Amino acid sequence: MKLSVKEAADFLGVAKSTLRRWDNEGKLVADRTEGGHRRYPYYSLFS
To answer: Which of 1, 5, 17, 24 maximizes the CB count within 10 A of its CB?
Structure first.
């Protein structure tokens, strides 16, 4: 199961911009759709 930026941000209780920053810093890696949208694997939110 993969979550959108909004879904993952709501789940973690952080802002969407925080997730994007973490992705850019390599702290939380998102998969990308063919359109370039971030998708966060559910299991990765616990590490």
So the answer is: 5
Residue 43, both tokens:
């299991």
Give the CATH number of domain 2-46.
1.10.1660.10
Q: What's the CA gap between 26 and 23, in Å, rounded?
A: 5
Residue with tokens 């997730």: 19
- pTM exceeds 0.90 for this model: no
| Domain boundaries along the sequence of the chain | 2-46
Location of structure tokens 């930026």: 5
- 36, 32, 47, 44: which is closest to 1 by C-alpha? 44
